[in-house]
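User: Indoleamine 2,3-dioxygenase. Structure?
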Amino acid sequence: MASSIMDAQLPFSLDKYHVSEEYGFVLPAPLAELPPYYQPWMDIARHVTELIHSHTLRSHIHQMPELDASFLQNHRELRLAHLVLSVTTMGYVWQEGENGTVKVLPRNLAVPLWAVSQRLGLPPILTHADGVLANWRKRVPEGPFDMENLELLVTLPGGDSVRGFFMVTLLVELAAVSGIKAIPDVINGVRRGDTETVTRALEDIAEAISSMTEALRLMHTYVDPAVFYGIMRIYLSGWKDNPSMVEGLVYEGVQAEPMQFSGGSAAQSSLLHCFDELLGVTHEPHSGAFLTRMRDYMPPAHKQLIQDISSGPSLRRFVLGQDSAPLAAAFQRCVSRLLDLRSYHINVVSRFITVPAARARQLRSRGEAGQEDTLSKAPTALEERGTGGSGIMSFLKTIRDRTKEVSLPPSDTGS
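Assistant: Predicted structure:
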């Protein structure tokens, strides 16, 4: 096998990793329509929410023709097909809630979803790469990239909060673009021993991470915690580490035994994986194993980028080996901003999961419903877990604590 770019010592660049200069990991200009042959998929995917509400999505899917996915011709067509088929799958599985799950995904949905997934190198379930990176369009094409001008291509139950959740997450991805673009400068600068280039690039990365935190703050404006917890979460949940579907799901026509796949998770975003590998953050075995597994839910080129950053020269060792206060300060600023982001993420998860979970338990124990019906009927299986199946708060706190450990000794930062 040919040596990687890292081994060959050629200048490191983002060219081969499907990273856009303007959009980073976000898919530029996703298609909104598939070729006419695939209209039955689009017709159902565009009405998943209404069909779930009328309890008729499953019956509509049973009547759907089994279409041949091999006519899909390019990456954008495959990404849209994966998005619409996986959103339809989530609706099919969770139509009747956590106590009305199914054991089998019918072949007219399972076979094409599997075929598209194989071609893309993605799992046959809704991922971050689908719901966030490939599920957007501008209302006014020449208009700004902001909440008012963005809409989803397909959606799930939860109304404006679903749009808010996916679009805010998209804006977090976009806020990181300048930081992702600076990574090659760091790697090439370390190789050349160019402290000034590395320092400038690290300052860009610190600024980008700070912008990610600012974008994440919009979650409080655009997403209702009761709707997220009580309605949305189940449709983002998978069939691995989920008490509602212990065995997993049979993909009819693909394999006779059930398969298990995790639901969507922030851990499926390539952003923090890249920054962790660059800064030298190493996670404890349990959390690290989960994060590593989440890389299988990313487009393969993005996963490869993370692996190649990881096999590059040690930035932290380089910083410690230089007598440069500006370099040390820039590195430490990256670590501090990453800590701030992770601490804020814990705050968000507390507001959107921990607090509503406690309230839901309280309402159920009292037998109350009424105004807070959304919460009282919330699924119970994932109360303390993320949609990806992780024990959410302990997981996030462990990751934050491991991030602290790459901080430079006080003498090296000039403090």
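The domain at 20-413 is CATH 1.20.58.480 (Methane Monooxygenase Hydroxylase; Chain G, domain 1). Residues 128 and 269 are 7 Å apart (CA to CA).
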